[in-house]
Structures are given as C-alpha cells and as structure tokens.
Design a protein that fits this description.
By secondary structure, the chain is an alpha/beta fold. The protein contains eleven helices and nine strands. A seven-stranded mixed beta sheet has the order 4-3-2-5-6-9-7. The N and C termini lie far apart (about 45 Å).
C-alpha cells in the first residue's frame, strides 16, 4: 500500500467493464480521481474522450505524464481532488456543460468526495466509482434500509451497484471486497439543497428514534406541531428514518 492508502485495481477485465460503464464518446470529458499507475486511464484512452486525471502523489503523477506523453487527450493534474476538483472543472478548456467522473476511491475519502461533488454547481452527468462494497450498499439503499449517506447522495444522483470486485483483484490486497457503482445525475429537485440537507440532518440525527421525535428535537418545535405538519403530507409519525424515500424527505422539508 502507498502512503496514501491506495489499493491498485489490476484486473483488466474489471477495468474494461468500468470503462464501458462510462460510455465514453468523442467530445466527452472524464475526470479521473486518483489514477495511480494509470490502469483505468489506459482503458479510457481507447476512447476519443478527453481525460483529466487528478493524482495527489507527485511521483505517480510524473510517471503518468511520461507514460501518456504522446496522447494529447490526456492531462495529468497534481493535487488533492477534494481541494481542486471544483477549480479543475471551472478552469478546464474542455468542459462546457457536461462531464463524467471515474475512479477507484480509497475508503477514507469516499464520503468527503461525495460531499465535495454534492457542492459542485454543475454535477457530473455520470460518475463511476469503485468503492468499498459495504459503502456501495449503503449508498444504493432504499426504504426500509435508507440511511443518511443514501439520503444525501440520492438527492443529486441515482446510484446503482454495477458489479462486485473481489479483494484479490487489487494490489496490495485490501481487507474487504469492492463494488463498482454508477451514479447518474438526478433530475432537478423542486427544493433547494440547503433545506433538504438540513432536513436530512434532523431526521437522521438519531436513526433509532421516530421521525416525529427527531424532527421535534432538530427543528425545535413541539411534538404536537410536528405531528400536525406530518399529517398534512400523509406521513406517519411513528416511522423510523430508514423508512423514508427521498421524495418523503422532500415533502418534509417543504413543510418544516
């Protein structure tokens, strides 16, 4: 493992499948997070898309520049994607209104990366991430297994697990299996993101409590008032947070 906690995907069949999920065409722009040795970059390079690869490790970035020096469609950027992703998107001459993101994402930055993307003014049309299997399952969860991560991400994307990748497909071998997950950009919502996320924080503050209790505590109103508001939108007061869909949460945000 490198100092950045990377496990490099070496299974060529899996890499080809990931590249295929991106459905890259001429004129497309794809931003790759953490290209490592360029295994996925190499597969994407078979397309006519423009590739902007953000690599934090300076030595790996230099190696990638040498490896792809003859390909004008590949640009290697050195830096922390969590800090520079927004500026890379804004500054790139390639990007107009649509782009895609891909990457084999280390566990410890997955949540931060998803939050970073959620704050982008223009979301990617498609993101294809290889992440820890357990996190992928949480991300794609639906009622009655909804959770704060799923509720947050599903406001701006529709995630689906494409396939599982066993731990033996990586070097060095991690302790857990991974899953390649496709996140397609969701249609615009009828409520502002800030209001929605504030509601998510309140509802999931204590997942074992009912939404009535969580909303009463989180919004600072009486249980009676909270119950009346929930009744107006036909949502039962004794439901647990995991029973709510994104649409349910939007309804709650609108009345609270």
């Amino acid at each position: 493992m490198t100092k950045l906690g990377q496990h490099f995907l070496t299974d060529k069949n899996a890499l080809k499948k990931i590249a295929a999920l991106l459905d890259l065409k001429e004129g497309d722009v794809v931003i790759e997070i953490g290209p490592g040795h360029g295994e996925l970059t190499e597969q994407m390079a078979n397309s006519e898309a423009q590739i902007i690869a953000i690599e934090r490790d300076e030595l790996l970035a230099d190696t990638l520049r040498a490896k792809f020096s003859g390909n004008e469609k590949i640009k290697i950027v050195t830096g922390d994607a969590l800090k520079i992703l927004s500026s890379v998107i804004q500054d790139s001459l390639f990007i107009a209104h649509s782009y895609k993101i891909a990457g084999n994402i280390p566990y410890y930055i997955t949540g931060k990366l998803l939050r970073t993307i959620s704050e982008l003014q223009e979301k990617p049309s498609v993101s294809v991430f290889t992440i820890q299997k357990e996190v992928a399952e949480r991300l794609a969860a639906k009622p009655p297994r909804m959770n704060r991560l799923a509720a947050s991400v599903q406001f701006w994307a529709n995630p689906e697990i494409a396939f599982i990748i066993p731990r033996t497909s990586f070097q060095p071998i991690p302790e857990v299996d991974s899953a390649t997950t496709v996140l397609k950009k969701a249609s615009p919502r009828r409520i502002e993101a800030d209001a929605y996320y504030k509601t998510v924080r309140a509802i999931f503050a204590q997942p074992r409590k009912t939404i009535l209790n969580n909303l009463s505590d989180g919004v600072g109103i009486s249980k009676k008032d909270a119950a009346e508001k929930l009744a107006k939108i036909d949502i039962e007061t004794n439901l647990r947070p995991q029973n709510l869909s994104v649409e349910d949460i939007i309804k709650i945000a609108e009345v609270f």
